[in-house]
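Researcher: Next entry in the queue.
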Amino acid sequence: MSEESNGGLRKIMTAQVQVPFPFSVIDAHDPALRSSEQRAVTKSLNLGGLVFETGKMDVEGFHLSFADATHGRNSLEIILKMGKKSDIVEVLGQVEWYERRSGPEGFSFVVGVSFVDIQADALALLRDFLQQFQKPAP
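Model: Structure for this entry, 138 residues:
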C-alpha cells in the first residue's frame, strides 16, 4: 500500500490485494432494473475505489459502464468482505475506465471503479482493512 505526498496533494493508499466480491449492475435510468449477482476479484483496492478484471463488459444486457441511452452511466452495487465475517462493506460504484487486454486465452477487461456512495462506518472498516498492508516507514 502506498500513500505519498506530491506538492501538498496526497495519493490515496492503494493495496494490491485480491478480495473476492459479488456485484450487480444497476440501470442508470431505472434502479429497479439490475443484473443478477456477478462475481469478481479485486486486483487493487483503496478508499476511493477498486480495480478488477472480467471477461466481458456486458452482463445480461447491462453494460458495466454505459446505459442504453446516449447518456447516463450504470452503477455497480458491490459487497466487499473484509476478513472477519462481520466486516462487510457495501458500496455503490461507477466504472471510470476500462481497458481491453489480449492474452493467450483471448481477451479480458481491466476495470477501474470509483466509489460514489459509501457510508462512514463502511469507510472506517475499509481503512482498517487497508492498513494491514501498509509498509512501515524506513
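Model: The longest helix spans residues 120-131.
Researcher: Noted, moving on.
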